[in-house]
Amino acid sequence: MLDYFKKLLGSENVIVPVETNSSKVEEYLKDMADYPSSPLVILQPSSSEEVSKIVAFARKARTPIVARGAGTSLTGATSTNGGIVIDFSKRMKSIFKIDTVNWYVHCQPGIAIDDLNLELSKFGFFFPPDPASSPWCTVGGAIAENSGGMRCFRYGTVKDWVLALKVVLSDGSLVKLGEPLPKNRVGYDLVHLVCGSEGTLAIVVEAWLKIAPKSIQSGEDHKRLLVFFEGWDEAAKAIESIRAHGIQPVLLEFIDRESMEAVNASFDLGLPEHEATLFVETATADQLTQILRICSEKGSSGSYLAVDEKDSERLYNARALVYLGVKALASGCHTEDVVVPLDKLSEYLKLVKEVSKKYNLKIPTAGHAGDGNVHPAILFDRDSKESTEAAERAFAEICEYAIEVGGSVTGEHGVGEQKIEFARSQLLKHNGELVPLLMREIKKIWDPDNILNPGKFQ
Ligand SMILES: Cc1cc2nc3c(=O)[nH]c(=O)nc-3n(C[C@H](O)[C@H](O)[C@H](O)COP(=O)(O)OP(=O)(O)OC[C@H]3O[C@@H](n4cnc5c(N)ncnc54)[C@H](O)[C@@H]3O)c2cc1C
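Above: the input record for the complex with flavin-adenine dinucleotide. Below: its predicted structure, written as tokens.
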């Protein structure tokens, strides 16, 4: 098998962990949340045809295949024990076309979202979904995870921006799904079945993504600000009230004191530290006035308006870098991404505090409050059995609460190997017994030998 891959790709694009020095292999031995992985071989193809040949060969050999972008998954989604890893981030990063009339970009899956946006900005366009990992995370990973981000509150998640895909099926066939058109009603929507399927149905080798003119996200009236609260409950009530008034800012994020302290300490941002902070971007002067009034009515203790573009970036970074800041505080970090109905947000934040106290664990919390998707980061000591078990129980309690109140155990990070049990439980409780069966049948049709990212997602 290795000889075949070396001949196909050139031996410099085939990394065999047992044959290679550790520095080249290191990045593949865990993901960004430290889920361990032990691949048989790592392949770095450059074209869709090469990926097709790799998959056809692996299918015959019944060897599992895991597609990998930047490995920023926080759920163990790219882990494998003895499988073939196809790394898209090194040699499949091309942009084939930026179409400013039909408003799409056609690209390979390994390009990082920030790099894509850099190219789009030269034409006055952008790709709105903005996972906080956008400097590294790839288009393919973001499609397979149906990633979210801060701007998704206003513009939707990645799947809302995917028009068409070229994919490799589990037998190696190359097929195009969908059309790069604003409207297309032909056939079942297979494009969006692949979005969010975590590499378990097909491997994305090309994507046609919708793009938007940059003018919709900027302008004189766009203002970024922080609003401070001395209690989580008041902050949550302010979010509920902003929603109830039908106001839709561009960004509406939550950051607690521990998260702000961590991000200030790690990245020297020098931002005020309060019990709860809302990070908001407004689109109009009227929105700004209304939001400040509502927050004041709900008990805010002050606010800070960015003074210029550089300062606006500083506020954005404070929220985007939270995960890295809090992860540096402990040897272990389980990040939750449960979603709750907005009217349960204040109850949810209270529960996080109770769980933190009950298990004697720090749980810094920040996230996309505007759509009820907040990320408690459960910090624990990997060297302590007691602390590790307490973190697992805390994680379970927060997931179970989300299911109980009609929420979801994952809003954006996906299931991976981390949440299989909770995802099943959510489907059974909210959707009934037939839905998991239907999903298993879908998997059997697309991947009868279960070689695509086995043991993940469902
Ligand atoms: C600091 C930080 C901040 C984050 N912030 C956010 C956030 O705001 N919002 C959010 O949604 N997520 C966030 N994440 C999670 C993660 O970054 C996203 O899910 C991201 O889109 C994953 O991209 P990736 O390229 O790293 O994918 P990987 O981690 O490499 O892969 C993720 C999954 O996609 C599959 N996959 C990868 N490429 C392909 C392909 N070409 N075809 C088929 N399947 C493929 C993999 O098999 C795996 O199942 C964050 C992570 C970090 C570390």
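Notes for the reader.
The radius of gyration is 22 Å.
The chain has a mean pLDDT of 95.
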